[in-house]
Amino acid sequence: MPYISISDLVTAYSEQALIDLTDHDDPPTGAVVDAVALGAIERACAEVDSYLGQRYTVPLAGDVPVAVADAALTIAWYRLHPDAADDKALRLRYEDAVRWLRDVAAGRAALPGVSSNAAAPAVGLAQVAAGPARVFGRRGGR
């Protein structure tokens, strides 16, 4: 289940901007091309899941946290731009979203209301290994 929809992209960025990025027909249709927009949404949600899946069961069930939807919107918008790497502001927003996702994956940020599936790290456990008997003692001597 995607975390965002085409209407979320329209609300966040405008219908005309989305038309400009998706309508590659010749002649242009003058409408949002759903297949192009949905492709960007699918790639963005897969990228979000690749990070969240390290700590949470994905896809997230129930209400999607606003921060997750925002990250997915930012990533989808970035993916829709053919020369996004050349647009510094767009690239920085994308990098910020990915940085936040990495923080969530590392446990430095959390998703309120979503149960983590990350196992608690084993702390204080020692491993005992047996080896051959000592040939030389610790004291100088013989």
Protein described:
The structure is a single chain. By secondary structure, the protein is mostly helical. It has 5 helices and no strands. The protein is elongated. The chain starts with 5 loop residues before the first helix and ends in a 36-residue tail after the last helix.
Describe the structure using short key phrases:
142 residues, mainly alpha
Largest sheet data: none
State the helix count. Answer: 5
Distance between the termini: 74 Å
Q: Which regions are unreliable across 5 or more consecutive residues at pLDDT < 50?
A: 120-126
Category by helix and strand content = mainly alpha
Beta-strand fraction estimate: under 5%
Secondary-structure element series: HHHHH
Helicity range: 40-55%
What is the number of E strands? 0
Whole-angstrom Rg: 24 Å
Shape: elongated
Mean pLDDT: 88
SSE layout:
Blueprint lengths: L5 H8 L1 H8 L11 H19 L13 H15 L7 H19 L36
Helix pairs in contact: 1-2, 3-4, 4-5
